[in-house]
Amino acid sequence: MSANALRSERLVLRPWRTEDLEAFSRISADPVAMRHLLPLADRGASDAYVRRIEAHITQHGFGFWVVEIPSYKPFIGFVGLMHVGYEAHFTPAVEIGWRLHPDYWGHGYATEAARLALRDGFERLDLKEVVALTVHANHRSRGVMERIGMTRNEEDDFDHPRVPDDHPLRRHMLYRLSRSDWETQNRTS
Ligand SMILES: CC(C)(COP(=O)(O)OP(=O)(O)OC[C@H]1O[C@@H](n2cnc3c(N)ncnc32)[C@H](O)[C@@H]1OP(=O)(O)O)[C@@H](O)C(=O)NCCC(=O)NCCS
Predict the structure, then answer these.
(1) CATH of the domain at 159
(2) Checking CA distances to 69, which of 40, 88, 109, 165 falls within 20 to 30 Å?
(3) 99 C-alpha vs ligand 1 centroid, how far in Å?
(4) The total number of structural domains that make up the chain
């Protein structure tokens, strides 16, 4: 079962539409947005990346959702959950990920959207744990991880199997959040 849309105070997380591919290709071509990521070489690679996300949503009922600011911007990037698609010491696992156009950084949108996706993961999808991964230098991404309550254990660091040997982006940090820790952090009383 898929979520039709997730809503917070300022944002909607929704499935992809054809017109989103053009907007996403502008992020894929942006050197600031892609600084800590493996490049998507051209429009075809950018579109293929979205098609893989859509296939995941169709198969599992969740994935990296489009982030929309209602009545203002129909597409600012994506945030959501995906199964980790390779083997590593922490898999099988579901990761939370985000990628916004730099015009929309610095407003708390990634954190707000990530909180929605996490709630969906723990409440609707009944996940036991969500992980996140990034390179050391990606301080903005690590900031989101820490704001949503994830923690990193240095012993979990790993070499990303999809990044070539000796590539500067190969070494990754792993952040984790268990459902029980999330429930403790989100207890209202
Ligand atoms: C990672 C990424 C999503 C983080 O974006 P971000 O704007 O730094 O994160 P948020 O949307 O949570 O915004 C937090 C900032 O908004 C500020 N902010 C402003 N208004 C806010 C509000 N109403 N609520 C919360 N924060 C607010 C916060 O103080 C914080 O500012 P700071 O950057 O000075 O610390 C973004 O940098 C990105 O898309 N990067 C490229 C892709 C990428 O690397 N993805 C991760 C791969 S692992």
Answers:
(1) 3.40.630.30
(2) 40
(3) 10
(4) 1
Residue 25 lies inside a defined structural domain of this protein: yes
Range 14-21 contact pairs with CB under 8 angstroms and sequence separation of 24 or more: 14/65, 14/66, 14/68, 15/54, 15/57, 15/65, 15/66, 16/50, 16/53, 16/54, 16/57, 16/66, 17/66, 19/74, 19/75, 20/50, 20/66, 20/74, 20/75, 21/46, 21/47, 21/50
Using a pLDDT cut of 90, give the percent of the chain over it: 96
Q: For residue 100, what are the domain limits? A: 6-188
159 alpha carbon – ligand 1 mean position (Å): 25
pLDDT at 46: 98
The reply to whether 1 falls in a domain is no
The residues lining ligand 1, judged by C-beta closer than 6 Å to any ligand atom, are: 33, 36-37, 77, 98-100, 105-111, 134, 138, 140-141, 143-144
pTM of the model: 0.97
Q: How far is the CA of 6 from the centre of ligand 1 (A)?
A: 19
